[in-house]
Amino acid sequence: MNTMSVIISLALVISFVLLIWFSNYKRNKKIKTRIEMCKRIAAEKGFLLSEIENIKDVVLGLDRQKNVLFYLNLFNNIDVAVDLNNMKMCKKKDICRNIDIKGVNEKITDRVEIAFYSNDINIPKVSVEIFNSENDSYHLHGELQFSDKWVVIINNHINELRKPK
């Protein structure tokens, strides 16, 4: 190989590496900005979030001291504080439909929510939307796993509240 081929090859490799690094840097900065925004909004409402996570336009945070789940949806500009002291449990709800594509039955997820069920039957069920195909793309990008993870975190916290001290 001559030196010109080596130089061009190195330039291409360096360009590729820089492109990947810059893409990851922008994504991480966007996530950090969303999390900081959620912490600020929660703090304005009197909550201190100890656990917090972002997926797309949704941020969930848990204030373990006040037993509150804080939900922020940046697409719809909605924030909700769910008081876990009054909750019995939560579940992930997948709202799906079946379609037939060339004789094969396919399940399409339209919405993913986390639904909270109260100890008091007079208090209506509360739900927070994690994914909606009308607002997001038609493709899920980890929302099911994100919901599963947070259902476990929330239910574990609710169960800790019930334990005698």
**Mean pLDDT across every amino acid position:** 87
In the predicted model, the low-confidence regions spanning at least 5 consecutive residues are none
Number of separate helices: 2
CA-based shape = extended
The amount of helix comes to 25-40%
Question: Strands of the biggest beta sheet: in what spatial order?
Answer: 1-2-3-4
In total, how many domains does the architecture comprise? 1
The description of the largest β-sheet is: 4 strands, antiparallel
Based on helices, strands and strand pairing, what is the structural class?
Answer: alpha+beta
- Supply Rg: 21 Å
Tell me the β content: 35-45%
Q: What's the helix-strand series?
A: HEEEEEEEH
* Terminus-to-terminus distance: 74 Å
Please sum up the structure shown:
This protein has 165 residues and is α+β, with helices and mostly antiparallel strands. Helix content is 38%, strand content 36%. A hairpin with a 7-residue loop joins β6 (104-118) and β7 (126-132).
